[in-house]
Amino acid sequence: MKKPIVYFICTGNSCRSQMAEGWARHFAGDKITVLSGGIEAHGLNLKALQVMNEAGVDISSHTSDLIDNDIFNQSDYAITLCGDAYDKCPVTPPHVRRMHWGFEDPARATGTEQQVLDKFREVRDGIKERVVKFLEEEIQHQ
């Protein structure tokens, strides 16, 4: 049986989609194929890497990539994590289940270093909750 392909998409593929990819790989293991891409490629955000490491998930091997239309068209799920990606995402083929999880961009957080890291942690934890719920509702029942 073919493993479901889950494609997380956000603007720069540097924070939110990387965190989602990390959590999905962490919780689903080899039950699914998980990838991420962006409208643009901004590079892996070091604060995203830091807060995921704090949670025990290593995303240091991830790369920031542009949306790959071949992967997109083969996906079972395309999940956007920001309004910009939702608006600019390519037209979804009929067989791809499109979902939108809107999360604030932690890279735009301002304030002290601690306040910025707290925003990253808040977004990380919110994405974790959504990934766990998604895996329970969509993947476990296949």
Which regions have little confidence, pLDDT < 50, spanning 5+ residues?
A: none
Give the overall shape, derived from the CA principal axes.
globular
The counted number of beta strands is 4
Our count of domains comes out at 1
CATH topology: Rossmann fold
Distance between the termini: 10 Å
Q: Classify the helix fraction into a percent range.
A: 40-55%
Strand order of the largest sheet: 2-1-3-4
At the fourth CATH level, what is the homologous superfamily? Response regulator
Number of helices in the DSSP assignment: 5
Give the H and E element order: EHEHHEHEH
Main sheet makeup: 4 strands, parallel
Mean pLDDT: 91
CATH class: Alpha Beta
β-strand percent reads: 5-15%
At CATH level 2, the architecture is 3-Layer(aba) Sandwich
Instruction: Find the structural class using helix and strand composition.
Output: alpha/beta
Task: Tell me the radius of gyration.
Answer: 14 Å
Structure description:
The chain is α/β, with parallel strands linked by helices and 142 residues long. The chain has a single domain (5-139), classed as Rossmann fold (3-Layer(aba) Sandwich), CATH 3.40.50. Helices cover 43% and strands 14% of the residues. It is built from 5 helices and 4 strands; from the N terminus they run E-H-E-H-H-E-H-E-H. It has a 4-stranded parallel sheet with strand order 2-1-3-4. Helix 4 links the parallel strand 3 and strand 4. The longest helix is centred in the C-terminal third of the chain and has 27 residues, at 113-139.
